[in-house]
Records
---
Amino acid sequence: MDLTFLERFLWSYIFLALIMIMGIALYGIIFRPHIIKKIIALTIFGDVVNVFAIYIGFRGGVIPVPPVYPTWNVTAGTIREMLSRSVDPLPQALVITAIVINMAVTLFIVFIAIQTYRLYGTLDARKIKELRG
Amino acid sequence: MRKEDIALILLMAAIALIAYLVAYYGITGPYPFYQLRTLGAVYIYVTLLKQSGLWAASPEAVTAILWDYRGLDTVFETSVFFLAIISAVALFRLTPKYEKEYKELGKKVKDTGLSLIVKLITKIVLVMIIAISASIALHGQLTPGGGFQGGSALAVAPILLIIGFSVWYVEKLGFTKTRALTLRTIGLVTITLIALIPIIYSLITMSGAYILQNQPKPGAPFSYPERVLGVFSGSLLFLNIAEYLAVANGFLVTFILLAIPEVIYFKIIKEERGGE
């Protein structure tokens, strides 16, 4: 089954938007001097990567359904229906893991940033770089 | 030209190149997502099919993968989360002297928080948040959701309380740091126990078993109850409840720590530096 030009265009459009957001996030991480802005950019970057991973599990060509059985009585028919329409569950499971790890890392960085501010009175990366000890 | 400008130009060029490739191959190239990948298809096939011998007693494939098929991943992920929160608690710890001062500050401060309207609405919304988060966590093995999602939803409640009322109000309700850490540890210990019970069972009965085993597999007869109160459960329900407890209380600890007034920490730093 082949896809129409519109479907391909929309698919590429969303990917392009994600890549642009990733570029903005990388810009924020590398070039913005304020630590909190760097952290915000880092979370945006993590979210973009997660959306990419979710997109890998998406299916074109059919109307996709979530990988959840709508009934408890499985028959050959339900399984065939699920296999023909369900999206891939594995990226979703991995993304939940990634979100948790992302959250834990962000939490820890935020705590370190607050402690840095308390000790040195600044969150400017250019000034922190010059500090010794 | 400064170094930063060159780096910026390189970054923009790389992004433009990737964007061009995606646009070009996305429109003209092959479209690879029509078929389900074999691994994903296998998980969907076996998750509710008892005859397959590998089923997870859960109509929801994502939770089945999280806590059964790839359960060890989730256990390690939970331990990363645990370590992050423990290190945050270690960084922001209060000595007994300052803990007392923090409590006394709470007695002195009057009329904290926002207006009466906000407080009333917060109380109403709070009930809904707790109900929704419990439903997300307890239905995790049947519908999209699970322990982590429910715990994150419940973590909104302490934020609302801290902003609408004050951090001392949260502690007055009984949600102290120590209690939250205890509940969190109970959740983590429960996860460990649920993971190890099949192994203990196999040592007693001299049969085979897998760590984090849920339903009987070929050569490993151990099984958690297939249904609890008539709905599918397996070990997933218990693991979800334990994770719900652990995540919600982990967030509660960090939010309380973040809300402790800065005055106290500045005093601690001043003391550590020798009264500068």
---
Amino acid sequence: MSDLPLLTNLVVELRRGTQMIAVLSQLKENQYGYSLLQRLEEKEMNIEAGTLYPLMRRLESQGILTSEWDTSDTRPRKYYILSDMGKEILFELEKEWYKLAKEMDELFKEQKK
Amino acid sequence: MKNMIERYVYDVVRRLPESSRLEVEKELRANIDDMLGKDHSEEHIEEVLLELGEPRLLANGYKTKERYLISPAYFDDYVRVLKIVMVIFVSVSLVFGAIDLALNLNSQTPWEMIGEVFSRLFGDSIDSILMAFAWVTVIFWIIERADEKTKFRVWKLSNLPEVPKKNSPKINRTGAVIGLILETIFAVIFIILLISYRDILGIYENSNMVAPMFTNEVLVAFIPLLIISIGFSVFVSMLKALYGVWSIRLTAIYTVSKIFSVVVTIIFISYPNLFNILMFEKIAEYMSTTSNEVADGFALGIKIFIIVLIVGTSLNLITTWVKTLKGKQIDK
């Protein structure tokens, strides 16, 4: 079943909305693109590099993240961190996430009865 | 193989707005560098770039707003308007092409003529389809940009379209459009004949006119009335193609135009001295009879024509009204 293209598409779509929350949850401290990618991989939250890098930049332009270049090292890196607004947004999104999970749970339970 | 990274980064940033290119380029290089780690072998570079994926898609990820000419929200309206505009543009171009051909045909032989007419009208149709495409697209593009900026288009309940009356008798749209085109072509040809060629109609002997068909003064006096009548009936055909349904109002207008054109036709063809007396004399000469008898024969023919015209039009109007009113009743 799992290699059905239709199912794959639906799963990708379902995860897309949650990817952003996952990314934000790991940005309470400074991260640069690759370190965040690895960190998410460690936690088995797989996101593609080609999705993550642009996403970080978009979140920055929306004011949810702030960034800073660190050029002290030999290789310059752009570090991202949640802005104050970003922290608030993450807090609200977490609440929303738990609410959604609970609602879905109820729905599934009802079906099983 | 440094070149590969250069080419990749270039292919991404060239798709981005000028203002963000430098920043994205710097960051993308740093990210690629991080992903490469210490291993700068050709294989590893390839692996990393493949992991980042197609530059087009990556660049698309960087864009903060969706970019398209016609957004999905407008697409259905766009297609609907495009269809109507294409029909109108093609009709108009066919009509103008036909007029121009009728006036300035260059061909000598019938085959040349057929070729010329076809290539001309076909080419014109393609041109007008492309033009309709361009115009509708530009106009929708403007509406959408303006809407984005000003939000001038506020949706209200009163904007909802009326539900079409299910039982109103439908007018066949394609038929109506074809009818409109043909009617316009014939109308144009008829008017051109009346204005520019009215004195070439007649009886010829050795390519010299010996008797004109019409009395010129009578014909000239009728030209404005005939043009009004033809214009009116073309206009009503346009309304038919546009509405697509026999409503009471449309049927009423249709009735008025039919009666008007029948009345004008009857007055015109039965007008005293419309046909030139010289023509009657000439025909009498050929048939070895008197011009009075020829004139009587003509008068009889005209009477029959008038009767057929009145009966035909009446039947047409009665069936149209029956259709219209029936639809109305079922609706209630």
